[in-house]
Known about the structure:
The complex is a heterodimer.
Chain A: H1 9-12, H2 18-40, E1 45-46, E2 50-55, H3 59-63, E3 70-76, E4 86-92, H4 94-104, H5 118-143, E5 153-158, H6 159-170, E6 176-185, E7 190-199, H7 201-212
Chain B: E1 4-6, E2 12-16, E3 20-26, E4 30-36, E5 41-47, H1 64-78, E6 86-91, H2 101-104, H3 106-120, E7 125-130, E8 136-141, E9 147-151, E10 156-159
Parallel strand pairs in B: 1-3, 6-7
Antiparallel strand pairs in B: 2-5, 3-8, 4-5, 4-6, 8-9, 9-10
Helix pairs in contact in B: 1-3
Amino acid sequence: MGFDLPDNDFYAQFNPKIEILQEISNIGVGHAATALSQLLNRKVEMSIPRVRFVSVADVADTLAESSEEIVAGILQETAEDSNGMLNMLLIFNALSVRSLLNILTTKSTVESLEKLDEVNSSIIKETGNILLLQTISAINSFAETKWFPSPPILAIDMVGALTDELITHSLDDSNMFLLVEVDVFTDEETIKGDILLLPDKMAMKSLMSNLFGMEEP
Amino acid sequence: MSTTHTAKIGEIVMSKSPDVLQALALGSCVGVVIYDQSTKIGALAHILLPEITGTSNSLPGKFATTAIPEAIKMTVARGAQRSNLIAKIAGGARMFDVSNLSIMDVGQRNIEAVLRLLTENNIPVVAKDVGENFGRTIIFNLESGLLTIKQVMNKKTYNI
């Protein structure tokens, strides 16, 4: 359960405590797996989430084979409050989408992500919603924040294009952000989900100060 | 031999015919080509944001306000004629249909900033393919001066 820390002043201050973020993600995803298990009506297991910082330039290549790979992205924004704003983006690759639909629909007619119909899109969006809501609720209960998520938005396109816009307003002048990777398994299928946690600077500071009493430098 | 130069987010690449310049998977980012047809020298900037935010001292290619002057400087230093420079731009999409536009519509703000900067620097925009809600990969051929746009999601390819 390793994590990489960038050589970056802003993040260096959080270095000793980053493991806690991993634990929070672990709990969040644990809740999510339970919820997913009920939805899918079968036993669902999950890997321990891997938490690491990723640089802006490398993010698309980290998430997929290439930045041009077509993936499904589910964006969950939170309202901006006194703790700043924490947005999340969940990425399912084509294989994971197919696995999910195989499990959730009786007749899966998905040829490719480009041709997902409305019903199937909706299923993917709601599944993502469950995972993301559990994650934010775990963060809220641990960090004593009150981030309130808005309805999820689904977009299917090149992974590089989907991450562009989020990068722009997440971290102004640092070039890193937080990536939580998790694999969810059922008996037959593996579903891989990558969750990008995108706290703005204020959110990062409130997380750290609520969790560890770290003051603004 | 033709070499392909790829501009990652925040980078500017520059070369001369017969090379090729490209930027992959532009979402809200804008790709700006600055080109001199007579010398076939050109640059491509992969711009992330309209202007510098905070106290950033990062790559000049990240922001429209710094990337465009830098791209001009680079091409001229390589031998391009300043008065011949033209521009082609692509990107600036809105990938997620969000409610809170003020925060999220970076694509539109990028397009506006790029157009303003090009006007201020007296560089005519001869072709553009901007906005909408799909990602684009762009490839610029320094020999022909054509910018190829690939909408990978929609399986469409065309030149501008």
